[in-house]
Amino acid sequence: MKDIDQLSEGAADVADRRRIAPAYAPKAVDHTVPWGNDEDVRITSVEAIITAPEGVNLVVVRVRTSVDGLEGLGCATFHQRADAVKCAVDEYLAPRLVGRSAQEITDIWNSSQVDSYWRGGPVLNSALAGVDMALWDITGKTAGLPVWQLLGGRVRRSVATYVHASGRDVAELMDEVEACAAAGYQVVRCQITVPGTSTYGAAQQSDSHISWDPEQYVRFIPGVFEELTARFDGRVRFLHDIHERVDPADAIRLLRALEPFGLLFAEDPVAPEDLDWMRTIRKQTITPLALGELLTDMRSFNALVTERLVDFIRCHVSALGGITPAWRLAMLAEVHGVRTAWHGPRDVSPIGHMANLAMDLASPAFGIHEHFEFSDQARSVFPGTPVTRNGVLEPSGAPGLGIGFDEREAARHPPVSPMSNWHYSRVRRPDGTIQRP
Length: 437
Ligand SMILES: O=C(O)C(=O)C[C@H](O)[C@H](O)CO
Hints:
Blueprint: H1 4-17, E1 43-51, E2 58-65, E3 71-75, H2 82-97, H3 105-115, H4 121-143, H5 147-150, E4 159-167, H6 170-182, E5 187-192, H7 214-232, E6 237-241, H8 248-257, E7 265-267, H9 278-284, E8 289-291, H10 302-306, E9 312-313, H11 317-320, H12 323-335, E10 339-340, H13 350-362, E11 369-370, H14 376-381, E12 392-393, H15 407-411
Parallel strand pairs: 4-5, 4-11, 5-6, 6-7, 7-8, 8-9, 9-10
Antiparallel strand pairs: 1-2, 2-3, 4-12
Helix pairs in contact: 1-2, 2-4, 3-4, 7-8
The structure holds 2-keto-3-deoxygluconate.
2-keto-3-deoxygluconate binds near residues 243, 267 and 345.
């Protein structure tokens, strides 16, 4: 085990890596707490690495410790602002965490959150989430236990998942749903191109001009689910992501029209700015509601959960700050009979998916796991990437989060332009008004 003098070398390493503000070196400040002892596993370095094996920027945080070979991994992915997150990890979190006990997860989370005085938001929370998950990983590995065991032990044998299907027309969408069903998935999220306009979650009409017509969308979608239900009823249950693309009154119109098709949930009927509408929407429809990937403060869920305004909370766990705040929310959700469906698209790294899986296994509030089938190249960067069998995930029992990171493989997939796949700031309504994503 290293002593504190050796540990300060960790801070020097951090300084060496500084590239954004090289003129200002971190001051040697002792951030240890009054109750530590010499036997503690100490943090010796904290760094963020960006890699894009799936075509989006995944931000990995690696925390090394004073115990030879003992390190933790966390997901700090905010694809669209990956460099900002890396800066927050390397420049701000690393210098104040080197030397601290790796097992003081809650105190590190609470103190890091207030360290900048202005706290939260997706950049700082993602950075903190990367550290937080890595500390849970380290603590599990130290104890020889999986993270789900640290959270109180599993409450289910396996975890049900859903995947995405999309099409440029109903026939193409049907083929994708059929393929999902053949692979064993019983719940599938369905998105489709709206003829003559762009869409969320399916191929765009064109790359240069992204027009969006909410009226056409609201009229078109119910017929699609009617056809899907006629073909797959009893075999597949559907989800749909509205992705904030309509005004609240139109959301109500659409949600009511979808009622006959028994969706497991409709997602993001309103933008975060319109959250107050959820009280009205809730009273107007029996379609189950899911929301939350854009909310970054766990307290934003207070009314949604305690007033049961949603059926599923959909936190993007890294944007929320990691396992520590998400687990607090899972407990609140359980108390109020709300379920969890943590956000799990391809811009959550396999490490983040393992964090979601650990909570899914241990939380009575678990609803469903959003699964992404990562490519072989992503799997080689992240050995242990979860794979489904018959649409479910089963835990491995490996200590910590149970996932690895091959930095050499990662280097073969350098960061990509954050806007290469997403066009949020160019989606406009027929009259030219910007559309929220
Ligand atoms: O998976 C979902 O529900 C999404 O909404 C995916 C988001 O659009 C994506 O993560 C944005 O980067």
